[in-house]
Amino acid sequence: MKKYSMLFVIVVFILGIVSTASANADIAFSPANVYFADNGKLVVTGVLINKGNQNGIVDTARLEVYRVDENGQSLLTSANFANVNAFVPAGGTLNWQFNISGVSYTEIGHWRVVADLGYRW
């Protein structure tokens, strides 16, 4: 009987380790629109998507915004954001916008955004 009890304890322990190791957050930013606001700031709107099975908090973000035309793409601006503090639930989404100051107005037309997020769970 002691053998089975010990075996049960070991199996429960291993399952606990495996389930803890597989818990994570996997957060990405999916941009929806890029435009200049009336206050002159460049606004990038979109959705933070957490494909993980653990709640996550986005701490930092680096965005690169490209203008795309028939000649290819050119970097419009890049910006770093600290203290974002955006809570994204496991398997969930959160609408989000980034405001970038100091960008000279230009017609954007088509655009592409590359986002690199720093997050924790």
TrEMBL record:
Lineage top rank: taxon: Bacteria
Q: State what protein this is by name.
A: DUF3426 domain-containing protein
The UniProt keyword set, sorted, is: Signal
What organism is listed for this UniProt entry?
Pelosinus propionicus DSM 13327
Signal sequence, start to end: 1-25
